[in-house]
Write a structure and sequence with these properties.
Elements (H helix, E strand, L loop, with lengths): L7 H11 L7 E6 L5 E9 L9 E8 L8 H10 L4 E6 L3 H9 L3 E8 L6 E7 L7
Parallel strand pairs: 3-4
Antiparallel strand pairs: 1-2, 2-3, 4-6, 5-6
């Protein structure tokens, strides 16, 4: 992916994701063999007032051609590790929900409208028992 292959608003969103300024936040980028960005992820302190966990997966995005290749799994591990996490996922994004389910997330029940797109989002939570760590 390069800047010429995405529209201007997308460039701004990707730039914002790379500039996460939350204390202790982790941002990871996946590159292909030519050095082009093929995925980004960011996680850090949760931003919700009714937090079921201390950490939140802010975003994880992989270019379409690399989806299903393991890039997203690597980005999840690099940014979140085995932490207890919350995240917000679009209600209609079944593929993402299956990915998160595979990583131990479960739908928690809270919903919200995404500010930019107006899409309904659901909160998912991943909790590990102390014995599993």
């Amino acid at each position: 992916m390069n800047a010429s292959s995405i529209d201007e608003p997308s460039v701004g969103r990707w730039t914002m994701r790379l500039e996460v300024d939350e204390a202790g936040a982790r941002v990871a980028a996946a590159l292909d063999e030519t050095g082009e960005i093929i995925g980004l992820a960011a996680a850090g302190a949760t931003r919700d007032p009714d937090v079921p966990t201390a950490w939140e997966l802010y975003s994880i995005n992989v270019v379409a051609q690399q989806q299903g290749s393991g890039v997203a799994d690597d980005l999840m591990q690099a940014t979140a590790g085995d932490r207890d996490l919350t995240l917000w996922v679009a209600a209609e994004n079944a593929r993402a929900q299956r990915f998160y389910d595979r990583h131990g997330f479960r739908i928690e029940g809270a919903t919200r409208m995404q500010e930019v797109t107006g899409a309904l989002e659901m909160r998912m939570v991943r909790r590990h028992r102390a014995a599993d760590r």
